[in-house]
Design a protein that fits this description.
Elements lengths: L3 H24 L13 E2 L10 E3 L5 E3 L7 E7 L6 H15 L7 E7 L7 H11 L4 E3 L3 H10 L4 E6 L2 E6 L3 E4 L5 E5 L5 H14 L1
Helix pairs in contact: 2-5
């Protein structure tokens, strides 16, 4: 009999594949110049992911417009994630280091899909454990669902004994310094591959 973890993994991978297919189809017919020879998914000219309105740990409402002039890495996850989320944020910290001086132009944003448990204090402590500049954002359950839908992100609550975990899309979105969505980094990419992709985003502006 398949274990609960096997069922979780199977449903998660199915959801991830469906999301990546939707992303790929949406990116077809791009109006902006495509990025050549990248490791991630080229989303230049994609017709989705044009903003958000969520709170930071200080309670301030933040939007994508706040980060104009920086390359934004946007990831959806939750702080009790055992593997995918910490790996993504460790990689983001390594990417920032690999970019050298250009790393100062990078803003990493972590949007929680588990607002019930990810309080502002928890989000702040979690993101800053990876890098002091990383920013966690949260919303109500309705706001979270709306922004996830806007970015073609899948997530769902999965019961585990007396608690629960979350399954979710494991892509990191990259926005250029003008706030345009350009790339989805794959979870399996190395930090070096992702840094190469981000340099191409910077050079293409």
């Amino acid at each position: 009999m398949p274990s609960r973890f096997s069922s979780f993994r199977r449903s998660f991978l199915t959801a991830l594949c469906a999301t990546m297919l939707a992303v790929g189809l949406t990116a077809c017919g791009k109006s902006e110049a495509s990025l050549q020879d990248i490791h991630g998914i080229d989303l230049s000219g994609a017709s989705f992911g044009d903003g958000f309105q969520l709170k930071d740990p200080d309670g301030r409402v933040r939007t994508l417009e706040d980060f104009k002039g920086k390359v934004v890495l946007l990831f959806f996850g939750f702080t009790q994630c055992p593997d995918v989320c910490p790996t993504a944020l460790v990689n983001a910290a390594q990417i920032k280091s690999l970019l050298g001086k250009e790393g100062d132009q990078l803003q990493v944003i972590f949007i929680t899909v588990d607002p019930d448990r990810d309080t502002p204090e928890v989000l702040r402590e979690y993101t800053q454990a990876f890098d002091p500049s990383f920013l966690g954002l949260y919303g109500t359950e309705q706001e979270t669902a709306a922004v996830a839908k806007a970015y073609r992100v899948y997530y769902a609550k999965v019961p585990t004994g007396n608690s629960y975990t979350m399954e979710h899309t494991a892509l990191t979105y990259v926005f250029d310094r003008n706030g345009k969505l350009r790339i989805a980094l794959r979870h399996e990419q190395t930090p070096e591959q992702s840094a190469e992709d981000i340099r191409k985003v910077m050079a293409a502006e």
